[in-house]
Amino acid sequence: MAGSARIVRYLLIASFVVALFFFVSRSSYDGVPLRPDILSGGAQGAANKPTAQQPPAGPAANTNTNTNTNANSNTKPPAFSNKDAAEHPMALTPGEPEWEDLVSIAPGPRMNATFVTLARNSDVWEIARSIRQVEDRFNRRYNYDWVFLNDKPFDATFKKVTSSLVSGKTHYGEIPHEHWSFPDHIDQEKAQKVREDMKQKKIIYGDSVSYRHMCRFESGFFFRQPLMMNYDYYWRVEPSVELFCDIHYDPFRLMKEQKKKYSFVLSLYEYVETIPTLWDSTKKFIKNFPEHIVQDNAMGFLSDDGGETYNHCHFWSNFEVGDLNWLRSKAYTDFFESLDQDGGFFYERWGDAPVHSIAAGLLLRKDEIHFFNDIGYYHVPFTHCPTGEKVRTQLRCHCDPKNNFDWKGYSCTSRFFEVTGMDKPEGWENQQD
Ligand SMILES: Nc1nc2c(ncn2[C@@H]2O[C@H](COP(=O)(O)OP(=O)(O)O)[C@@H](O)[C@H]2O)c(=O)[nH]1
Ligand SMILES: [Mg+2]
């Protein structure tokens, strides 16, 4: 009797162990294979992470720059297809199908789009913060690529940290000297004198040469870097920015479907001392290239007297989602080259924000510029926290609405609403100071 009880006990334990093994093996997730570069201990390598919906894909980089593109993947990202789009309409408001699901890889088409960041190696931890937030609030479900640009080669740490955070593929480009240096026509002595004067006057970045190269590069060259030529849309991300709200839909797709070419979340008045003659140069461009000035543009956002003077309003360009083909158009490049000839990037301290904004205001129809109320955003020192308690709750925003800059006196966003004839979001009156 004792013997058979032992056998029964052994059988019970054995079947329990088998059942446990079966259960554990069934409930485990499908492991994602480690990338070969990590397995081999290398720090280099573009992240190329296949997902359920998006096959390993990416642009074939046709570049001499220091590219970390995975050499094995030359396939283009899935193109925008009307059928795919029709099967998966964008859920722009709560209650629509697919609104609630913030876990799965987003179904539907992907745009030919990328994030883009200009950064130094020393910016690595600040950009890591930004990437983490962009991924958590949006890109982990969309897996868009990320292009990093630098006037110096990116180091191994920068590549390792950033490629481990981005869910799409990462590409690293070194900017050619011609795009980050003084053009020949610049009088060096005059430029130096300006920097000394601006230093005396304590104008922010007034004495910096590299900041001027940065502004000229962002104004005229980032969109024509070899790595960027593969894409149609970009989303600019700077170090140490914050995203406050869930992004339930694809902003790139909104741009395409609603035929938008430029977008913003914050707008304000530019520091006059940095751009005293920018409007004179703009007026010269308008005279020389009347064919580029579009009917029904947003001149009213830039000028209160029909174009005679500039009111200094500009979209804050550290956040932008935009159309690269517009920036590569003859209209935009003629505008940039005309400004560059006048030398104000060095004889003054023209920022890329007023340059992009004036271009958007004159070369685009006003309905081609989009304001993303629903993207909560911070770049020191300003916050865009969506107006409307309902929106903020639905989007799980973590910003303090009191900090929303949109309707305060120094913001130009009210003016944008007036010029475009849009209704201001509910609750804006209570946020004016
Ligand atoms: N590679 C490189 N990037 C720069 C340099 N200066 C600024 N940047 C980048 O250009 C962007 C704007 O610079 P930032 O310091 O944030 O200027 P601010 O936002 O106007 O205060 C950021 O993405 C910086 O990382 C530079 O000298 N080299
Ligand atoms: Mg910045």
UniProtKB/TrEMBL annotation:
Region annotated Disordered sits at 43-93
GO terms, molecular function: alpha-1,2-mannosyltransferase activity
Q: What Pfam families is this protein classified in? A: Glyco_transf_15
Regions of biased composition (Low complexity) lie at 50-79
User: Does the keyword Nucleus feature in the UniProt annotation?
Assistant: no
According to its record, what are the GO cellular component terms?
Answer: Golgi apparatus; membrane
Keyword terms of this UniProt record = Glycosyltransferase, Transferase
Q: Which Gene3D superfamilies match?
A: Spore Coat Polysaccharide Biosynthesis Protein SpsA, Chain A
InterPro entries in the cross-refs = Glyco_trans_15, Nucleotide-diphossugar_trans
Q: Name one GO biological process term.
A: protein N-linked glycosylation
Name the family. Answer: Belongs to the glycosyltransferase 15 family.
Check the record and name the PANTHER family matching this protein: ALPHA-1,2 MANNOSYLTRANSFERASE KTR1
The protein's name: Uncharacterized protein
What is the native source organism of this protein? Answer: Thyridium curvatum
